[in-house]
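Example 3.2
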Amino acid sequence: LAKLKAFIEEKKLDVQIIVVSDHGMKKITRTIDLSGVKALQGFKNSGSGAVISFYSPDALAVKKAYAELNKVQGAFHTYLANDLPKSWQFDDVNRRGDIIVVGEPGVSISYSEVPNAYAGKSKNVGSHGWDAKHAPELNGIFIAYGTAFKKALKVPAFDNVHVYPVVIDVLQLKSETKIDGDDKVSKAIRK
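Structure, written as tokens:
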């Protein structure tokens, strides 16, 4: 980036650069294996690590498994599909299980039918998927450079849905459809 910045300045180009990542990483400190939760037998599941989802068409089985999971001691939280925090923006019912288990930051969740990619590996392994509000190292990176942006400005962490409004603002475009982000970040960083 330093070489690119120097080149732009040397050539006196009017170029806008935005560097962004979708998330940071956090070291995995331990794994919790849920294979012993008998009420989960027969459930389909997906995911491992920070989040694992369990699926069943049987509402009574979901209720029983949820109750059993809530009795298990461990650094994780169990949610029913409709009880997820709104801030997670997990609105698509096809992308969430009937039961969702989320490890506390740094805790990886495993289940025997979903091999945990981190089991038995070095504790220096990192991952993502936890809520960045509880682990700031999970925040993504955002760097904006160019004549359209204020210089040497540091802003608080923000959701990536606000990057698109910055881009369309810099390009002087209008969104044709409703978007999740707003222009607050753009207003704060633009000259």
